[in-house]
Recover the amino acids of this structure.
């Protein structure tokens, strides 16, 4: 028993040290993909001022060159990547047509709008369209030349790729480009990047890489504790799939002699909602992937084969887009169309969360200040565009307090909290099927409702939100749409039944049981972690 306990202390103190070091050395290189397949998004000017004034996001990537968006981002100093439509590629291989594209899409907005890149098409290799594929590099060269002639050499020309460009990616050292494309397509493109000092852009999606039949691969994809994947050729134990995917691309580049070309992550993300029973899709997993990804990228650690590299990374995506075909595709967004976060992965300039209660003990706040997501946007036409000012979320109020689950609360703990609260005199009708807070039908969302109801009813003491160290106090109203979270003003027990504190199984003693239970599972989790590192 003594050894794991000492290890536990060691682990706690080193991880704290690590968090302090990494947060002081933060170099933020996080951008978002601003997709617009939706009919309920706010006007581009609202989006521009929101990103500028409230978030640390300092770069966006568009899937087109929408002039309204380009105009809206003028004078924001937010870098913009525009995309040439796939179908335009064959016509852009000659200099005059490339110049004309620049004249139409860049010059009218330059220099007020800070262009940093032109993406030539999107994942063209995945289209298998030989005509498009044959014209990528000529179009990239022509656009680069046109930019040079306009003295705009700081604007880089790239072409984003899915990881379908690799024939093999496991283990990472075996990464290689698809045969037939390696020397014919990728070597010349990488040579262009080397000549023009521009990066190779890839779209790694661990979401598509885990295997539903092997639950441990999900933790590997989500940056959660896992057994690791050992690469015999290099002796490296990979602890997350993102690093493995990036290193597989690096290995493929190295085989062609281009390991000096920089890599940029054009897209990566995780949906927060999917079809019923779609494997791996949940709000909790989206928070874990994107939150950990941002921390990982900004830590400056790089990957095993690319140590100390901070990859510029564009999260997919900025908004939930309600006209996408499937539920999961509609739910990749960090924000809802009304600019409230689907969840907070730590991109706000001022944390919505006040340093009170349990959260104050956690210097590495990260994605703590999350809120439960609302249901699918398509079902919520009322939350259309809102022209909100630059001053904080309309729902937040620093004096009010709600209780929600911590980001790392386990599903077991969430369920235990729901069971406890709902069997102790709190009205859980709103999270039952048909109730206003039933959707999204997730454990986390239901637990948030229940935990808050208990916290409010018990008088909003910090201890009432402890739940065995699985609850956290927030200043942001977690309610959404018709789901109103109780906020019991002091002295008014309005439609909240007072618990029978004299009866058997009083709230207080049950809470301390719960606290003990939480502490034990916490201990268990850390010991497992230690054993993994042994
Ligand atoms: C614009 O952003 C760049 C980094 O992208 C920074 O160096 C520069 O100081 C910013 N300029 C203004 C006026 O904010
Ligand atoms: C580009 O810069 C050169 C040298 O500064 C200048 O002579 C030329 O006129 C510029 N061209 C354009 C299109 O601005
Ligand atoms: C890599 O991790 C696996 C599983 O945890 C372990 O069996 C193996 O010994 C590790 N190898 C190295 C070199 O750390
Ligand atoms: C990475 O950074 C660490 C710490 O600053 C340093 O010791 C190490 O030499 C660096 N590695 C490379 C390959 O630059
Ligand atoms: C969850 O995070 C908090 C910090 O906010 C930490 O104190 C606690 O130990 C974590 N719990 C688990 C189970 O990892």
């Amino acid at each position: 028993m003594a050894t794991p306990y000492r290890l536990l202390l060691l682990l706690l103190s080193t991880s704290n040290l690590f968090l302090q070091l990494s947060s002081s050395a933060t170099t933020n290189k996080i951008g978002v993909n601003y997709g617009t397949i939706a009919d309920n998004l706010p006007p581009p000017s609202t989006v521009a001022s929101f990103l500028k004034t409230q978030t640390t996001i300092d770069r966006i990537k568009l899937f087109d060159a929408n002039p309204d968006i380009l105009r809206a981002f003028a004078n924001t100093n937010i870098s913009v990547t525009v995309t040439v439509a796939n179908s335009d590629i064959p016509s852009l291989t000659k200099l005059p047509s490339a110049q004309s594209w620049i004249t139409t899409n860049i010059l009218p907005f330059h220099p007020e709008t800070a262009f940093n890149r032109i993406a030539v098409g999107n994942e063209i290799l995945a289209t298998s369209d030989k005509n498009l594929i044959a014209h990528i590099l000529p179009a990239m060269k022509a656009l680069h030349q046109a930019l040079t002639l306009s003295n705009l050499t700081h604007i880089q020309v790239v072409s984003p790729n899915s990881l379908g460009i690799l024939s093999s990616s496991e283990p990472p050292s075996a990464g290689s480009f698809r045969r037939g494309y390696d020397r014919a397509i990728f070597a010349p493109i990488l040579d262009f990047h080397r000549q023009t000092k521009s990066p190779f852009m890839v779209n790694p999606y661990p979401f598509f890489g885990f295997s539903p039949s092997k639950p441990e691969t999900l933790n590997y994809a989500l940056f959660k504790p896992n057994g690791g994947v050992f690469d015999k050729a290099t002796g490296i134990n990979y602890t997350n799939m993102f690093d493995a995917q990036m290193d597989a691309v690096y290995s493929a580049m190295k085989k062609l002699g281009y390991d000096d070309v920089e890599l940029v992550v054009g897209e990566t993300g995780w949906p927060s909602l999917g079809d019923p029973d779609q494997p791996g899709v949940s709000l909790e997993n989206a928070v874990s992937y994107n939150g950990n990804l941002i921390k990982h990228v900004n830590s400056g650690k790089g990957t095993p084969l690319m140590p100390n590299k901070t990859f510029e990374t564009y999260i997919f995506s900025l908004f939930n887009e309600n006209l996408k075909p499937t539920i999961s595709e509609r739910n990749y967004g960090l924000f809802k169309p009304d600019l409230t976060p689907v969840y907070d992965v730590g991109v706000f300039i001022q944390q919505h969360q006040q340093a009170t209660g349990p959260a104050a003990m956690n210097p590495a706040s990260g994605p703590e200040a999350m809120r439960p997501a609302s249901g699918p946007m398509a079902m919520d036409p009322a939350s259309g565009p809102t022209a909100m000012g630059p001053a904080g979320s309309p729902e937040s109020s620093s004096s009010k307090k709600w209780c929600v689950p911590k980001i790392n609360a386990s599903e077991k703990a969430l369920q235990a909290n729901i069971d406890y609260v709902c069997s102790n005199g709190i009205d859980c009708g709103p999270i039952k099927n048909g109730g206003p807070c039933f959707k999204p039908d997730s454990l986390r969302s239901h637990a948030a409702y229940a935990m808050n109801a208990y916290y409010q009813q018990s008088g909003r003491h910090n201890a009432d939100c402890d739940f065995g160290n699985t609850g956290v106090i927030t200043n942001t109203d977690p309610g959404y749409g018709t789901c109103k979270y109780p906020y019991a003003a002091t002295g008014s027990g309005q439609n909240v039944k007072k618990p029978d504190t004299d009866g058997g199984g009083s709230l207080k003693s049950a809470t301390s049981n719960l606290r003990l239970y939480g502490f034990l599972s916490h201990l268990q989790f850390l010991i497992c972690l230690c054993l993994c590192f042994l």
In short: The pocket of 2-acetamido-2-deoxy-beta-D-glucopyranose (ligand 1) is lined by residues 77 (CB under 6 Å). Confidence is low (pLDDT under 50) at residues 1-26, 351-397, 489-534.
